[in-house]
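Illustration: Otogelin.
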Amino acid sequence: MTESAQRVLSSAPEMSADTQERERERERARGAAALRREYASVVPIGRSLESNTSSAEQTEAQKPSLRRATGECTSSCLNGGWCVHPDSCNCTLYQATGTHCQTVPNIGFEREMTCRSWGQYNYETFDGLYYYFPGKCSYTLLKDCEDSTRSSVHIQVHNDPECSSFPYSCTRSISLFLPWEGEIRLQNFSVTFKGQSVQLPHHIHDVELQRISDYIVVSQPQGFTLAWQGFTGSVYIKMSPEFVGHTCGLCGNFNADTQDDLKTSYGKFY
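Result:
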């Protein structure tokens, strides 16, 4: 609850249970609206883009609600996010590229300096490359691979190994490792540090953790801001400019070039 709302409520007459519940709903709505403004560039799949661009001006690649791949694809072709028969694999949908038409470039300004992952298997890099990766292990989502910034960070995503045909309901978690010892773990709406439960809001060194509406927000000054959606396991990450060209992992290398985002630690491109 905001400070101004607290002042108003503290000075108001005692409210009934129904009135209090309505106030809580309004406060949650205000918190959600504030988060949408902060993360207007990282709208989850199936929701409209909040921008000044009209729908007529948006390219097909900027309409994520049409790019969902449901469940695991048993075919060898992911035609721009749709699981299709190999005979129809022509990479024409959303200008898809890659061996299996599994990547979709998104050069819209809505994705600037933002990486996101949702539905366990869907990813979009800082540079705007969308791809489908049905992995069921733990992976490096983001890492400062040159250790040259002032705020080195390593973020891992732990996918559900038992996830089957309903990836949007699978349980996953996120781990954050910073220069000081200890793991910050986010799962559902629980937060642990070094295995011990943490109550929000909370500070760990220069990292702030707080809950805003349905999100757990982790932020570090001059470093990064991470929003974790506890219900769906969706994650959105914004980085400061000092990380440009220094990152690696599933979020890409943050250099404004989608062509080299799928580069492994061995230097191989996919």
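Reading the tokens back as a structure: The first helix runs from residue 3 to 11.
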